[in-house]
């Protein structure tokens, strides 16, 4: 998976792996247990998902699942390395599945055959999967992955409206719904549909507005109050008027910081919150305002890092 998407995609898809196993792969599992994904082969690699699963007949199996957004010409060799390592460590020959979620025509090979070695893994192109497997689910985590599936019979506009309408039905709470809409936007980049998703979300008033969030407003007001108090104390020495002015500026900055942290958490989770150390060194209120607006538009944490790294 490309570096731009790997962490975001993995975070989004972790809640639907079991559904992919049952609905797409076709295995009926009773329960699954996630195993360590960091593998010490020659150099350390990290798999997307390694699961020990119990099937309906009571047998145990090992599943190794990867999500790939680009055509990696050596994928079959990577899968062979994983297969050898997992078989040696766990004593179980893993079932291997690679879900291709890219937009270019699939060109990866799923079989390696030489005079001495043969290996095959299961390669699934998500564009061949009927979107209705997930679109009408009662779980929003499953609805969002329908954006990666085959929607040709619906037409793109109707398809996107169906996804967003379904999320609106399932998630009435605006903040949480905003999180899922953002996740659809992120995944839609893999289908070159981000503009369409963004426009439809705004038209349906589904875009989460940070400025309207109660916690953001409370944080901004609290920050302004505390900042004003500090400014007043400083004003005793440098002049009351000057102190109040500085207090308001500092207060606005504190409120912005709290709102930005909330926005980063809602859209990017822990990866977003990790940026707060960089955000807090920004002194300019105008730059903080600009960054807050960028959170809504950015497609990845890397875009936000680039902004913060440009001498802001």
Please specify the SSE layout and strand pairing.
Layout: H1 6-13, H2 17-25, E1 29-34, E2 38-40, E3 44-46, E4 49-55, E5 60-68, H3 75-90, E6 95-100, E7 111-113, E8 118-120, E9 122-125, H4 132-135, H5 140-143, H6 156-170, H7 174-188, H8 194-203, H9 214-238, H10 240-268, H11 270-273, H12 276-279, H13 285-297, H14 301-308
Parallel strand pairs: 5-6, 6-9
Antiparallel strand pairs: 1-4, 2-3, 4-5, 7-8
User: Any idea what the CATH architecture of the largest domain is?
Assistant: 3-Layer(aba) Sandwich
Could you say which overall geometry the principal axes of the C-alpha atoms support?
A: globular
Helical stretch tally: 14
How many domains, in number, for the residues?
3
Rg over CA atoms: 24 Å
What string gives the helices and strands in order? HHEEEEEHEEEEHHHHHHHHHHH
Could you name the CATH topology of the largest domain? Trna Endonuclease, Chain: A, domain 1
Assembly level: single chain
Unreliable spans: 239-244
Beta-strand share of residues: 5-15%
**Would you report the number of β strands?**
9
* Percentage of residues assigned to helices: 40-55%
What is the strand arrangement across the widest sheet? 1-4-5-6-9
Mean pLDDT: 81
Outline the biggest β-sheet: 5 strands, mixed
Task: Describe what you observe in this structure.
This protein has 312 residues and is α/β, with parallel strands linked by helices. The chain folds into 3 domains: 6-128, 3-Layer(aba) Sandwich (Trna Endonuclease, Chain: A, domain 1), CATH 3.40.1350; 132-203, no CATH class; 210-308, no CATH class. 53% of the residues lie in helices and 14% in strands. The protein contains 14 helices and 9 strands. Strands 1-4-5-6-9 form a 5-stranded mixed β-sheet, with helices on both faces. Strands 2-3 form a two-stranded antiparallel ribbon. A hairpin with a 4-residue loop joins β7 (111-113) and β8. The radius of gyration is 24 Å and the shape is globular. Mean pLDDT is 81; it is low at 239-244.
């Amino acid at each position: 998976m490309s570096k731009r998407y790997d962490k975001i995609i993995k975070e989004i898809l972790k809640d639907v792996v079991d559904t992919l196993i049952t609905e797409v792969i076709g295995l009926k599992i009773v329960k699954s247990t996630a195993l360590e994904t960091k593998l010490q082969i020659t150099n350390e690699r990290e798999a997307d998902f390694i699961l020990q699963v119990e099937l309906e007949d009571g047998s145990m199996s090992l599943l190794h699942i990867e999500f790939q957004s680009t055509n990696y010409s050596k994928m079959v060799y990577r899968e062979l390395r994983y297969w050898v390592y997992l078989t040696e460590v766990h004593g179980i020959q893993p079932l291997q599945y690679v879900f291709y979620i890219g937009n270019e025509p699939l060109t990866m090979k799923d079989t390696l055959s030489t005079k001495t070695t043969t290996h095959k893994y299961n390669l699934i192109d998500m564009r061949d999967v009927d979107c209705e497997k997930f679109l009408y689910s009662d779980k929003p985590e499953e609805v969002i992955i329908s954006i990666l599936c085959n929607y040709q019979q619906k037409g793109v506009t109707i398809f996107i409206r169906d996804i967003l309408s379904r999320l609106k039905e399932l998630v009435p709470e605006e903040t949480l719904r905003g999180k899922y809409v953002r996740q659809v936007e992120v995944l839609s980049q893999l289908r070159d549909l981000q503009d369409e998703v963004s426009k439809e979300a705004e038209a349906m008033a589904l875009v989460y507005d940070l400025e309207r969030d109660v916690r953001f407003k409370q944080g901004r007001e609290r920050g302004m109050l505390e900042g004003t108090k500090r400014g007043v104390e400083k004003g005793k020495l440098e002049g009351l008027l000057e102190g109040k002015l500085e207090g308001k500026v500092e207060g606005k900055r504190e409120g912005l910081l709290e709102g930005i942290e909330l926005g980063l958490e809602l859209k990017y989770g822990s990866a977003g919150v990790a940026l707060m150390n960089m955000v807090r060194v920004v002194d300019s209120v105008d730059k903080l305002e600009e960054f807050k607006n960028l959170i809504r538009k950015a497609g990845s944490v890397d875009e936000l890092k680039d902004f913060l790294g440009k001498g802001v």
